[in-house]
Amino acid sequence: MSGERLTAKERMAIERTEMPEQDPRVRAGNFQEVNLGLSPEAAMREAQRCLQCKNRKCVEGCPVEVDIPEFIAKVAEGDFAAAAEILKRTNALPAICGRVCPQETQCEAQCVRGLKGLPVAIGYLERFVADWAMARQAEARRPAVEPTGFKVAVVGSGPGGLTAAGELAGMGHQVTIFEALHAPGGVLRYGIPEFRLPKRIVDYEVGQLQELGVRIECNVVVGKTITLDDIRREFDACFIANGAGLPVFLNIPGENLNAVYSANEFLTRVNLMGAYLDEPTRTPVIRGRWVVVIGGGNTAMDAVRTARRLGAEKAMIYYRRTEKEMPARAEEIKHAKEEGVEFHLLEAPVEILGDEEGWVRAIRMQKMKLGEPDDSGRRRPVPIPGSEHEVTCDVVVVAVGTRANPLLTATCPELKLNKWGYIEVDETGQTSIPGVFAGGDIVRGGATVILAMGDGKRAAASIDRYLRDKARRG
Asked: What is the pTM of this model?
């Protein structure tokens, strides 16, 4: 039945589709993708739940302003090719967004269906359409664009950089991405585990940009290999999206012991060294028997679920507030629990303890209670005197956030930074240096993939205006 023939009452009667998943008992021992994707029939049925509101609040909730009702209408009709074309028009990385974006706090949070029941599963449908197109190597038909003759550099090939590059290439500019590591993708490749975002998806999306003419130069560390001044001499404009990969630690005794990692290092090691593969590389990755992860965000969930898959008998989350205050997605918390991860709430570390050879043997925790709200709006955790106790462990992963990496900014004093070391930009995304724009985590601090993409999209439009104004001025 076509979605167009359904009345609003009939649409409201359709229950939300559940995402098929790997059995938790099986997936806890492998790195294959947890969510398995919708069937065409399930996708069409879910799409028929959309009320096709005239006031498109879901679009307002999307940082890259995907034409959500339009692509969902095509899914409801079974015209997946048209849905893919609509989706790709506004989203450079739909297969990625459909997997890792927090739709429940963005587009789906604005869905009118959510006022009476559950919102439309926009993320599931986005993933379905993107995967359908990928399986058929389908690509939205892009009109031929006259080359502008302008050259734009993008620093970093994470979500912000890739989005900006795709937008700028579609406008006719010659785009080159500079990536520090030896394969493109940034956090998409090195920070997110295989079971949430397979590398083949990243490879596909990057390949689509390369077909648009985007050049990618890897193993280029801006601030070391080349400088921002070098880039400015060769290119007409630049977009900085190198992320905020400097880890934050707890400043407690014992953090210099062997087998204490930042979450960034832990996840990057696993991804970079292929520990997720059936036949991993010879470069070893420590596989702890009792792993403690400190933190309550998505990165903490990624780290603890990765430790479980690497063979940890006990994979433990310690978080100083309650589950209600956890910033991680509800789905990630649910998946972690299903996979046997232990959650220890209202506890905070005070010291990491080592053996005579300098390896982690335990961590000393202290119980907490919630006090008055702090600057984040969440109730502040307050230590309970006399509640300290030891937890046996052999690996500790600290997942409490990141800071701006000063590698690039330290070599360019003209760039105006805020007190935390992040790049300051105006409303167009332009920095204190004309023609140099920035976005993503290096501006925002640690944020989401889709927010970085939104910054990339807006900056690309600003760069295009800047270059065309420059051409008019001669």
From this structure: 0.93
